[in-house]
Amino acid sequence: MKPRHFLPHPLLSLCLMVVWVLLANDMSLGNWVMGAILGWLIPLLTQVFWITPPRIYKPFKLCWFFLRIIGDIILANLEVAKLILGPQSKLRPAFVEIPMLLEDDLALTMLASIISLTPGTVSADLSDDRKMLLVHTLDVKDEAHLITEIKTRYEAPLLEVFTCSTT
Amino acid sequence: MNIWIEGLVSFFLLAGSLFAFVGALGLYRLPDFFMRLHGPTKSTTLGVGGMVIASLIYFGARGEGISFHELLITLFLFITAPVSAHMLAKAAMQQKLRINENTSGKPWDQ
């Protein structure tokens, strides 16, 4: 058996092991071993279903990006709470189309999820050619501003992490 | 248990409940389906987050060792909430649900 078939997704295996230990809520050696066995077996048995994961060129940038996302999620909650409690007639909801530069499946999924979790936006649909993302916003003052914000704040770091471009 | 820790736990519990309540209120108050989607995807994440932090502090302070498995709730929520919101939005567009008249832009034909 070739090594890449023996351990098809090392990162996924590591995640599964950590999740197992957290689920058991017990840091003993036995649990780490059990986690390691599960982390090895599950990706091995399900590898026909997995897409090829993209290469991560800048892992530290990705970690930093996740921390910023968590900060943004907290702000998003406050923002949406304010909009819900405020007067309903003043809200200006909109469907906005955002052109996408990302091409990888996983990166697109991450961007769509992040958009759903951050200030006042839910990603509604991706066009068939994967060039446009339809986003519903709860309250928008300036659509062009929203588009540039999503592109610079979320899409640009993801592009940098996954495709090694310098934009 | 220390009074300060109890205060901290209560604070996070109350803050969490408040956000969960606002999310539920949004589900009830907002005028159309697409706007209602915003309540459960956002406000509830912080609601659950607050309660998870309270649980971490409470069980951490009881001296039975720190427990981290509450953090997994947040992880699973972050993975599942956007996906379900996305599927709901797609289904709503296919059903051509009524859209609030203030909405600018159009949903796509499915």
Helices, strands, pairings?
The complex is a heterodimer of chains A (167) and B (110).
Chain A: H1 3-6, H2 10-24, H3 29-45, H4 59-85, E1 94-99, H5 105-117, E2 121-126, E3 132-137, H6 143-163
Antiparallel strand pairs in A: 1-3, 2-3
Chain B: H1 3-29, H2 33-36, H3 38-61, H4 71-94
Helix pairs in contact in B: 1-3, 3-4
Model description:
- Chain A: It is a multi-pass membrane protein.
- Chain A: Keywords: Cell membrane, Membrane, Transmembrane, Transmembrane helix.
- Chain A: InterPro entries: Cation_antiport_E.
- The complex is a heterodimer of chains A (167) and B (110).
- Chain A is mainly alpha-helical and 167 residues long.
- Chain A has helices at 3-6, 10-24, 29-45, 59-85, 105-117, 143-163, and strands spanning 94-99, 121-126, 132-137.
- Chain A has 2 domains: 3-49, no CATH class; 59-163, no CATH class.
- Chain A is 58% helix and 11% strand.
- A 3-stranded antiparallel sheet of chain A has the order 1-3-2.
- Chain B has one domain (3-94).
- In chain B, helix 1 (3-29) packs antiparallel against helix 3 (38-61) and helix 3 packs antiparallel against helix 4 (71-94).
- Classes of the chains: A mainly alpha (167), B mainly alpha (110).
- The A-B interface holds A 19, 22-25, 73-74, 76-77, 80-81, 83-85, 88-89, 91-97, 112-117, 120, 122-125, 127, 134, 136, 138, 140, 143 and B 19, 22-23, 25-26, 29-32, 34-35, 37-39, 41-43, 45-46, 67-69, 71-72, 75, 78-79, 81-83, 85-86, 89-90, 93, 100, 102-108, 110.
